[in-house]
Amino acid sequence: MGLYFKNATVSPIWVIYGYESPGCEGGVDWAKKGWYQIMPASTAKVWSGWVGGDCWMYYAEDDFGHIWAGPYNTFVPWNNFDWCWNTASTSGKNIGMKIFCLDWDTMDHTKILTL
Questions:
Q1: What is the pLDDT of residues 25-44, one digit of tens each?
Q2: Among residues 59, 54, 60, 64, which one has the least CA distance to residue 100?
Q3: 2-7 and 43-48: which strand pairing?
Q4: What is the mean pLDDT of the chain?
Q5: Which residues lie below 8 Å from residue 90, measured CB to CB, with a gap of 6+?
Q6: What phi and psi values does residue 26 have, to the nearest 5 degrees?
Q7: 44-58 tens-digit pLDDT
Q8: Please, what sign has the CA dihedral across residues 70, 66, 37, 10?
Q9: Fewest beta carbons less than 10 Å away: which of 5, 27, 40, 44?
C-alpha cells in the first residue's frame, strides 16, 4: 500500500508531495514533503499506507526546466523537508502544486510523470 511517483522521462526529476495533515500549525490542514530524486524509468514510494479516500498534491521539476505544477502555492526550501503547509524559511522558493483525489477503495496509486 502506498503512494508512488514514476519518472517516465529521460532525465532525473525532483518531486514534492502534499498530504492532508489535520491540526498542522497555521490553520491549514495540509503538509508538504520533499525532495525525492527519481531517476529515469524508476519509481519512488513516498507514502506508506492506504491512499484511498484522500486528496494529494504534487510538484516536480527536472534539470532542463520541465515543471509539473498547479495552482496551490506554498514555499519550499532547497533541502529535504517535511513541513506544515504554511511553514517557510529564508532559503528556498515558492511553487504551485497540483491536486488529485482518490476513490475510497484505492489501496495503491502511482502518479506517472511524463513530458
A1: 888 999 999 999 999 999 99
A2: 54
A3: antiparallel
A4: 97
A5: none
A6: 90, 5
A7: 999 999 999 999 999
A8: positive
A9: 27
